[in-house]
Amino acid sequence: MSPCHSCIPGADVFVVHVAVPVTRAISGLFALGLPLEVVPGKWCIGKGKHGGQKADQSKLKIESFEKKGSFGQIFRGSYRNTPVAVKAMRHAGRASLQEAELSMSLTHPNIVKTLFFKEADQPLTGPELWLVQEWCDLGTWGSHCCVPRLVSAGLLEALDMCLDLANAGAYLHSRDVLHGDLADGNVLLCSDASWKGFVCKVCDFGSAAQNPVQASSSSSTVTYLAPECLEQTDGVHLLKRDVYSFAMLMWQAILGQRPFKGLQAAQLVILLSQGACPQLPGDLPAAVLQLYKGCVDPDPQRRPQFHGVVKDLRPGHSIATRSMGVCFLRHSLTQAPNRGEALQLLTCTIPKHLRLSLILEQAG
């Protein structure tokens, strides 16, 4: 069935009267190259019992179709003049609501923020679920990690991306949330004022579980799957699956390609069951190799927790400073009055206008 639509006189805008799945109607209108405006009363978005806030649907505008996935479709739009992504999903009952409610409850700089969501019960087509989220303008981890970053500023950028990801993981695990599907398409890049020009944010909590014992790895991307996911487990150390997936994304950020590139899922399952694991080049800083080795340990119990990974990657720690490929420059600063101690300013200048200054007190 085709959507019923009409043109507003004097305006280049279509009004949609939804009688088919909203996603299908919108896709057809975008194929005509015309902008679409959300009209109050025509869309079941906003002012729902869920979402924790009243959303003024008249302020939500859909501007372009972005992509289609197995879950549904994603559109770019604006809400109160702020860019947003609108994720339209087939309503799968409680599972869909769990993703929406969990997304709404998460507040962290490295988690994609969900502004509000709404169940839309279309009489002719069945239920749908719409999530309105912050717009991340620089693509995905996978689209960005397409060149090697093995030395100097490149390696530092890769490690800083990993720090963003580890911060997100530490926050989720502190709330006992297993993401369950950390893959290069589920980490988005958003412009910001940091030295690298962007921040990484985790999205897509369709595989997440508030109680890790209830988590399922069936939908995880095999490339990033922890080997224990291929076996029946009792739920112990389940959160450490995310740590293994983090290591695969770390490998990708440094090497500039997906782990096990070119292999099919069935081949990967066989390799993982045999204990195969991609290795980093041996000439990388020892601290980087040690962190990676710990995160891919075949025994989940021996893998570090995310808060430990954050500590290792935090600026000023050995991994970050040793990986810059430059030396600290020492400058005597001043003599402390009435004490036989000298203050020294340690400055390390690296590309991309990052300046790290540490004032250390050293016994004289």
From TrEMBL:
Domain Protein kinase: 60-320
Species: Effrenium voratum
Single GO MF annotation: protein serine/threonine kinase activity
Protein name: Protein kinase domain-containing protein
Entries under InterPro entries matching the protein: Kinase-like_dom_sf, Prot_kinase_dom, Ser-Thr/Tyr_kinase_cat_dom, Ser/Thr_Kinases-Pseudokinases
Pfam families reported in the protein's UniProt record: PK_Tyr_Ser-Thr
Coiled-coil ranges (or none): none
